[in-house]
Amino acid sequence: MSGSDSKSVRFSVAPGGRLQGRLRVPGDKSISHRSIMLGSLAEGETRVTGFLEGDDSLATLAAFKAMGVLIEGPVNGRVRIQGVGLHGLQPPSQPLDLGNSGTSMRLMAGLLAGQSFNATLTGDASLSGRPMKRVVEPLARMGAHIGTTDRGTAPLVIRGGAQLTGIDYAMPVASAQVKSSVLLAGLYASGRTCVTEPAPTRDHTERMLAGMGYPVQRDGNRVCLEGGHMLRGMAIDVPADISSAAFFLVGASIAPGSDLVLEHVGINPTRTGVIDILIRMGASIGIENRREVGGEPVADLHVRAARLHGIDIPPELVPLAIDEFPALFVAAACAEGRTVLTGAEELRVKESDRIQVMADGLAALGVNAQATPDGMIIEGGAIGAGRVNSHGDHRIAMAFAMAALQAQGPIEISDCANVNTSFPGFVELAGQAGLHIES
Ligand code: S3P
């Protein structure tokens, strides 16, 4: 969708209501991206179910089709990928447009650094402003040739034919995208590639590589692999995205009378910071029917309304809840007392500057929220009514939609089209659960 169309989508949310019933939110975005990437590089067929049919994962899918991979679907979340093997991708005839998707761009930078052909990666205005040096720098150390703008941003111009060599990389930021980018380049490198992370980040790449038979060594905060092995296609059942479930966990917690079950949610321990933080705030969240699908733990999450109180968010939980802070800020605004977040400067370089945009939006609703360089201080209390701008950030739009459950009047949210990047059908599903939302 173009920028001008995207600005035209607005949400109007009437105050009050409660969330009830059982529902399944769409598939995990991180796992959906990786299913296309690794399924394409595998030998043989990969069948995916529960694939996220959102703009971001569809951008990855289109990019691999443009590199000659036969991909059928998605139809009702089912995708069939005829893997071409690690050396079977074809040169794309045009730049690959990855839209709003940072995961696509950063992971593909690593994967394409090892190909024999040139490729250019572009994105929308938001993605074109996000930092890419964090992947370009370690990839260059491996021998990759990747050009950026003077500001270290996309377009990324990747020169093929580089001879990559494994590196031992200590990441300065806790980033699963950087870790994954270096590991994917490592598939094409001579020798061993190791990444050490300053704090645990989502490990879906490592799990899926191992699931496809690629030898991966993991030891604490360090992961290593050697180039030259192969991937075997497999069946991938993508669980519901805990990052999408998060809006409902917060909404049901703050709306009196709520009682909601979120089915088949991925509860990989590198992703469950949102549950831990909400429980520390007093939330009632039960983890039921735990099981494992395709190497990823899943469960049904049973959430009931509860009285929340403010907390100091433990910094070690930040990377484990990195995408959930827009929703958590809304929970904090409804909680009794003060919530303090520190150590989250990464939020400033997401799809929007999530610290500033959320502080502005909360202030517009009468909440006492103070942005700090690396977090926010929120005094919980009443949420008023008003207009907020999501700045084209899907998670900001959905977080403010949930805020209406506890607001004193209607909330109008502008620039909401990008909700489709991660959560197609949000308005309908939230409406069925009890949110008074119109688009
Ligand atoms: C993602 C990693 C996270 C997250 C993003 C998806 C991934 O980014 O914010 O939405 O799929 O690897 P960082 O690793 O840059 O923190």
Report on this model:
This protein has 439 residues and is an alpha+beta fold. The protein folds into 2 domains: 3-27 and 239-438, UDP-n-acetylglucosamine1-carboxyvinyl-transferase, Chain (Alpha-beta prism); 29-237, UDP-n-acetylglucosamine1-carboxyvinyl-transferase, Chain. The protein is built from 14 helices and 23 strands. It has helices spanning 3-7, 29-41, 55-66, 102-113, 133-141, 176-186, 204-211, 242-254, 273-280, 325-334, 354-364, 394-403, 419-422, 426-433, and strands at 11-13, 20-23, 43-49, 70-75, 78-84, 96-97, 119-122, 145-147, 156-159, 168-170, 192-196, 216-219, 222-226, 235-237, 259-266, 284-293, 296-304, 338-341, 368-372, 375-379, 386-389, 411-414, 437-438. Bound molecules: shikimate-3-phosphate. Shikimate-3-phosphate binds next to helix 6.
Overall domain count: 2
CATH topology of the largest domain: the name is UDP-n-acetylglucosamine1-carboxyvinyl-transferase, Chain
Calculate the mean pLDDT score and round it.
97
The chain-level structural class is alpha+beta
In percent, how helical is the residue content?
25-40%
